[in-house]
Amino acid sequence: MTLSPAARAAAVAALVNPSSIAIVGASADLAKISGRPLKHLLDRSYAGRILPVNARHAEIAGLRCYATIASLPEAADLAIIAVPARDVAGSIVALGMRGVRAAVIFSSGFGEMGAAGQALEAELVRVAREAGVVMCGPNCLGFINAFDNVYATFSQYADGETGAGAIAFVTQSGAFGTAIAALARQRGLGLGYFINTGNEADLEFSELMSAVIEDPRIKVAAGYLEGVRDGAALIRLAERCRALGKPLVLTKVGRMAAGARAAASHTGALALEDAVFDAVIRQYGVLRARNEEQMLDMLEVLAHDRVAGGNGLGIATQSGGAGVMMADRAEELGLDVPRLGAATRERLAEVMPAFGAAGNPVDVTGQFVARPELLREAVIALMDDARVHIGIVWLQLMTAHVSTLLRIFTEIRDRTSKPLLVCWVAAPAEAIRRLRGEGIIVYPAGERAVEAAAALMRIGRFRQQANAEGRPLAGHRFSPPRAVRAGVQPTVDACGWLRDAGIPIAAAALARDEAQAVALWRRSGAPVALKIESPDITHKTEVGGVLLGLDSAEAIERGFRTLTRRAIDAAPGARIEGVVVQSMATGHLELVVGVKRDPVFGMIVMVGFGGILVEVLRDVAFRRAPFAPEEALRMLGELRMAALLDGVRGRPGVDRVAIARMLATLSEWAAAAEPVLIELDLNPVLVGPDGPVAVDCVMVLDESGEPARQSAVRDP
Amino acid sequence: MTLSPAARAAAVAALVNPSSIAIVGASADLAKISGRPLKHLLDRSYAGRILPVNARHAEIAGLRCYATIASLPEAADLAIIAVPARDVAGSIVALGMRGVRAAVIFSSGFGEMGAAGQALEAELVRVAREAGVVMCGPNCLGFINAFDNVYATFSQYADGETGAGAIAFVTQSGAFGTAIAALARQRGLGLGYFINTGNEADLEFSELMSAVIEDPRIKVAAGYLEGVRDGAALIRLAERCRALGKPLVLTKVGRMAAGARAAASHTGALALEDAVFDAVIRQYGVLRARNEEQMLDMLEVLAHDRVAGGNGLGIATQSGGAGVMMADRAEELGLDVPRLGAATRERLAEVMPAFGAAGNPVDVTGQFVARPELLREAVIALMDDARVHIGIVWLQLMTAHVSTLLRIFTEIRDRTSKPLLVCWVAAPAEAIRRLRGEGIIVYPAGERAVEAAAALMRIGRFRQQANAEGRPLAGHRFSPPRAVRAGVQPTVDACGWLRDAGIPIAAAALARDEAQAVALWRRSGAPVALKIESPDITHKTEVGGVLLGLDSAEAIERGFRTLTRRAIDAAPGARIEGVVVQSMATGHLELVVGVKRDPVFGMIVMVGFGGILVEVLRDVAFRRAPFAPEEALRMLGELRMAALLDGVRGRPGVDRVAIARMLATLSEWAAAAEPVLIELDLNPVLVGPDGPVAVDCVMVLDESGEPARQSAVRDP
Predict the structure, then answer these.
(1) In chain A, what residues touch B447 (CB-CB under 8 Å)?
(2) Are B366 and A175 in contact (CB < 8 Å)?
């Protein structure tokens, strides 16, 4: 029996919060991998039923032990499997027969162990599907649900305190994930869930995380990834997190070419193009942390309740230089360090020492040691300013003043509803501990506090966007194109489909001979471009197959002959279908627009500046289709050369909204075309005063169409 | 008496390592600012003589106290001044009369306190010059020479242990500098010197650092800067550090526009353009750390003796993902993570578990817990590979295995002469302490270890460069141009000076009337460009003052009239001197080259790509003049669009060496022209198969020339 989607979801929900746990292969030696879960469950007083399975014992640690899975007294919500690899599939079959629907498999010796292991894993997946058992693992450390004392793990992390907190952490890596969990503990950050997904033979990162974010005790989700197989599931997760108002923070290794290669060889996951991954997760409101330290820095602030109402950062310091450093970083990250209002400046002038600075950053100097109310009143004035949405207070050492400062920060916190971050460099350990005990967010370095503030700002912005912007209608407006043939489609058909969808594209028609070409030129009443048309020639310019601005019968006739001869010379045997006659478009700016099918995320739309810029700078932006025009505007804003859109050197600016509309429409068409579209290149798209116009189009479909169907000649 | 340079140097040397210290205004309350130095000096058993000066006491803390400076029994090497601001100048005068040559001034109330304070500071400087006393401060925390127990400070940092180590740390900021020093202590990094320069009324950062780097006990210099006044002194410091083989690491705030503004208002220092600062310090072999954490990460590895023989990084981990993350970062920073040699791979295959990865990164997995020799032998094999120059070992937690691992790392360290960095995430505190005790470098995060390795690599590269490359001959080859007039120079003169210097520039001559223009065109025998010539029109294109490719007498005559008319229309009253007739240059690539006088560093040469790229991308590189062609090549390599130089889209590449030669020659000419040159723009410089040719030139000199002297007409 294969589980229905609803039954599968129920099985996963029960897996992470089981009422009863069977331990298959439970050892009486509680220090062994197969004994440690039992020890943890007992030590932490797990409230459910624990059912060890081991034929060699009648009892382990005072619990009745069952000889076989079949003899279990109930269908446990979860089975922990810690038996040799060769015995795992058999255990899964037995569990399925006993009605157990979920297992976490510690055993290694599967996909990570070469071809033989991969075959064993494939067989395991087949067996589990048939048995109706969902699996976490194999080759994983298991997981912890700290709220309910579920310690289905042998991780070193479980050896220490694991206070249940508002963070759900799911990791593909056991070793790195354990290290991150231990670092979270060092900071006093509680992980409500710690899950290692291991080989992900069945349950992947996204499905497990999707189960635990529904827990109302969780406020924020954090993931460590080495690869992604199911992009759609990751996006559903991101959308659900956004709907729940729970930030999702991801760290993914493999940012650079070398790293991606190493990751692919390490995990066997698809080598994801990092730029696409990065763009897509941001599109869906996910925060990316570049490494474990930044992830934890973000979690520290996101696990609190206060949200940022904007991007204004107020900074108070006892060192002008630290203020400068933080202002630098804020500017880099899109935070504003606003000039304070007149009322704020007046309030500050009243409390500040003469040699302080009442701007933003506010430099209160070290004088607050003598006059604690100086610090308190200055920071409260700063936080009260309407342009300030997040506050950071920077200080250092002050070993002798911990209690005073603790009191001041608590008072400030209580007198504002905005997020307040304390940055205390070289702080006494006691100060950090006591501040965190009071629920005050504290960082050890100024730039890290600013980065956390930026994360808070971005989460606030994602929420505003989600509320303010309509959702694109995936595929509702369009039907997928019907392929004329497999591979590159005839230009006239491709252009026609896009034009019908509302995408601005230069009119094109096919001429089979010189006379037809001249007739088309006459009908257009303006200069035209001629382009060779052949299913065997994808890149027309490479064979000299394009002539521009022809405007006489003689030029058209000569052009037709030239293109045909060049094509035959360059590609002997190519089937020449004729010459496309196309209206000339104008525009002083050249973009490239494209769609490609990403193996993980599906239809990806790309836009960039054309010509040498795209080749040398790779100044391109990506989004997953479909998306709304507002998202397309952000896409344009991400281009490093975006200022070109607004006009430089006296050249006029172009209409960003018109380009955004074109991109959004294309994205909806591409989403509808997903079943057949492999690749689409609109290069160049010329942009002038009248908006964007695509002047060339290469569309590749993967569905065989009718054999050699004749395309309709369209008016240019 | 003003001190001679030699006497001044001797005074500064004595300041940082005095045989006797007078404390002017010494308090009997050793907790006060004016009492704390005495306490520290006594507590740490300073071996020199301590001479308190205070008329109200006969004795302080068992030491004889002197009523006046005049009554001091000797001319102390150093005086600490802790008296009210209004009394400081008087003390300095008295010290000078008593023969004391150096003072450190704690007192505040000077330049940091508005106009009145600035006046007081200017007066203090005048008095000190006259008295022959060098000053550190005022408004500073003082300094520590931990080797010789000189605690001339009231910094909180001195309250804790300050083990004397190989690092000299000089900071412009008291508060931030104290925090950095405390962080260094937390890591067990000893600061041999800690110096806060305060207002830098006399001694600046560079002069103080220059004194202490001569101490053979110092291996590395670190500075925290908010601004730089004397760029030449900073460069002398950098060159001396390089000559001594002692790395210099600088953190400077004010990287972004907002931060730079804040820094300028905070320090009163010149608002330095960060891109210029950044380029110049790298040019002279300085490492820049973006913040205090990165500075300390660099110091940790630079305070050790091992150097990197190249950029090959070998990585061993127990987590594939951590390896990927480190490989990513390495690639970003220019480190190579090389494929290992066959012999290495064989050695690794012998020791590695089946599910490990014997590539680079080497994934030894967690199995080394059971088999410590696995880790040892794998890492030694890695370090022995000829392509590996630096090694990083990554591990996590391992709380139960600290002693074993300590032994393994010690053995590895002893069996290789290459630098080895341990990255131990979530390490037990004991492990960190014991590793450091063994002299083993340890980091808490993978990316930070890679960044430190990159610093080590860059220091090695700087040394190679310094050994391999000739030094440019500053001003030896050229004499400064003799200005024709103040301001913009006549085009023909400017072009002539540069051509005489060997800088390729299109030939130009001035025509005063149409007939002269036609004659010049005939003599050139090729199409020419016409450009309006007027001392009142700097940007010719903006007034339509340039015509290109004219090749007939009629076109030349008409062009002459057109340009004259346009100039009069656009700039009524402008003095029109005629029209420059210039040879047309060819080249498919357009560069901009310029020289500007930086207020801090003097003559700065800039190169970038021309056209819209320079405006939108600001894709430019800077160097301080003069520099060698090798440096110019690196400059070209820094351009983001550098790939354009090698040809894209079928366009031919250009000769980087020819461009580099032009830039280096220009830099030598600019260095010679420093007394008079304000600005030079060569825009565009066209680059084609025959190398670069400047086709336009605007040169601004600041020296008034002879009145309205006629420039010689040169042949085009």
Answers:
(1) 290-291, 293
(2) yes
Write the CA distances from A224 to A170, A296, A594, integer angstroms. Answer: 7, 11, 31
Q: How far apart (Å, rounded) are the C-alpha atoms in residues A364 and A357?
A: 7
**Two tokens at A573?**
């045997």
- pLDDT confidence tier of residue A511, bands split at 50, 70 and 90: very high
Query: How far A450 CA sits from the closest chain B CA (Å)?
Result: 13
What does the block give as tokens for B29?
A: 């309350």
Distance CA(B360)–CA(B317), nearest Å, equals 10
**Among A313, A358, A320, A366, CA closest to A336:** A313
Q: How many C-beta neighbours within 10 Å does residue A565 have? A: 11
- Best of A118, A324, A448 to disrupt the B interface (most B CBs within 10 Å) is A324
Q: What are phi and psi of A185, to 5 degrees?
A: -60, -45
Cα of first residue to Cα of last residue in chain A, in angstroms, is 58
Phi, psi of A666 (to 5 degrees): -60, -40
What whole-number distance in Å separates Cα of residue B341 and Cα of residue B676? 57
Buried b (16+ CB within 10 A) or exposed e, B71-89: ebeeebbbbbbbbebeebb
Which of A114, A260, A324 is facing B266, going by the closest CB pair? A324
Q: How far is Cα B104 from Cα B106, in angstroms, rounded to an integer?
A: 7
For A408-556, list the strands marked E by DSSP. 420-425, 441-443, 487-488, 508-511, 528-533, 546-550
Q: pLDDT tens-digit profile of B237-291? A: 999 999 999 999 999 998 766 555 555 544 444 445 889 999 999 999 999 999 9
Predicted TM-score of the model (pTM): 0.92
Place of tokens 């370090």: B383
What does each C-alpha distance from B127 to B89, B117, B377, B466 come to in angstroms?
Answer: 7, 15, 67, 42
What are the angstrom distances between the C-alpha of B471 and each of B629, B630, B662, B664? 10, 10, 16, 11
Nearest to A102 by CA among A4, A22, A162, A166: A22
Distance from C-alpha of B693 to C-alpha of B685, rounded to nearest angstrom: 5
CB-defined contacts A:B, below 8 A: 218
β-partners of residue B613 are none
Best A156, A328, A394, A399 residue to mutate vs chain B (most B CBs within 10 Å): A328
Least confidently predicted of A384-398, B106-120, B187-201, B368-382 = B368-382
Q: Could you tell me how far CA B61 lies from the centroid of its own chain?
A: 45
Indicate the pairing of strand A528-533 with strand A578-583. Answer: antiparallel
